[in-house]
Design brief:
The protein has 274 residues and is mostly helical. It contains 16 helices and no strands. Helix 7 runs antiparallel to helix 8.
Length: 274
């Protein structure tokens, strides 16, 4: 979490840079280049955490290490589901597909972040107005120098520390019930398509969703249930999974088309947020 307002706003750009990394990586693989060459030649990424991941992968693949081994060695460089999709693609020989899935996910995530950043314009404006206006309310009939000093202090305090409030507000806006359900459906579809076992995919999807109700529901399930129970039945009775999503899970269980079914549902949920 960033303390500054500008840092908090900039953190909302990370999904865009993640999407750019995976898009360029996938394009290089399609062109017949190795992962090491692509990652090394694409150049520095403007976002620090994404650049750290790129450099780490470039050096590691250049040393002949597998992406799965690299992800396992430094898991904090990636979101849990992101690292799992990369590892699954590397181990299963479907890295192109995994990179496309991650590109699509982070592109959609960035679109949601743009809407949140637009919404944050109003509280930031109020913070700036308060920095200029409060001294006149709290310090009536004070000398002009006192007003000026108070304004500078409040303005600096807001810009340097207001990022905490902005980050918390952004997290709330990005984790409404509808969006957490949509995120759950998208990540679940992507992880299953990447070839992850159902239990692993469910756990990663629930963690990525940020939905507390889903997390509590999963805690009650055993590993045997994850391995043997159809998806719809696995979430039957969970208050955070509406009937519409249960229906889509039943269709996905019957057809095996988890990405096509669950991604459509996720997209519909996201459209309702516009």
């Amino acid at each position: 979490m960033s303390f500054t307002v500008l840092g908090a706003l900039r953190s909302l750009d990370e999904p865009r840079h993640r999407a750019e990394l995976y898009r360029a990586w996938n394009a290089g693989l399609v062109a017949g280049l190795t992962s090491h060459v692509v990652l090394d030649q694409m150049g520095p990424n403007a976002f620090p955490s994404v650049e750290e991941a790129r450099r780490y992968l470039a050096v590691g693949t250049g040393q002949g290490k597998s992406i799965a081994a690299l992800e396992k060695a430094r898991p904090k460089l990636f979101a849990p589901f992101e690292g799992a999709v990369l590892a699954a693609g590397d181990e299963g020989g479907t890295l192109n597909q995994s990179l496309r899935l991650l590109t699509d996910y982070f592109t959609g995530d960035f679109k949601r972040c743009l809407k949140v950043r637009d919404a944050l314009g109003y509280p930031i404006f109020l913070g700036l107005v308060a920095a200029f206006g409060l001294p006149f309310v709290l310090l009536p009939k004070s000398p002009a120098r006192t007003y000026f000093t108070a304004i500078v202090i409040l303005l600096a305090g807001f810009l340097l520390l207001g990022g905490v409030f902005i980050s918390v507000l952004a997290s709330i806006l990005l984790n409404t019930n509808s969006l957490t359900r949509a995120r759950f459906a998208r990540v679940l579809a992507s992880t299953l398509e990447a070839g992850l076992p159902l239990g692993r995919a469910v756990r990663l999807s629930v963690d990525a969703s940020g939905n507390r109700g889903l997390k509590e529901h999963v805690k009650k399930r055993t590993e045997r249930e994850f391995a043997t129970t159809p998806l719809a039945k696995l979430f039957a009775g969970c208050e955070e999974v509406p009937a519409g999503l249960i229906g889509q899970m039943m269709v996905a269980d019957a057809t095996g088309d988890y990405k096509g079914t669950l991604s459509v549902y996720a997209r519909e949920l996201e459209e309702r947020q516009k």
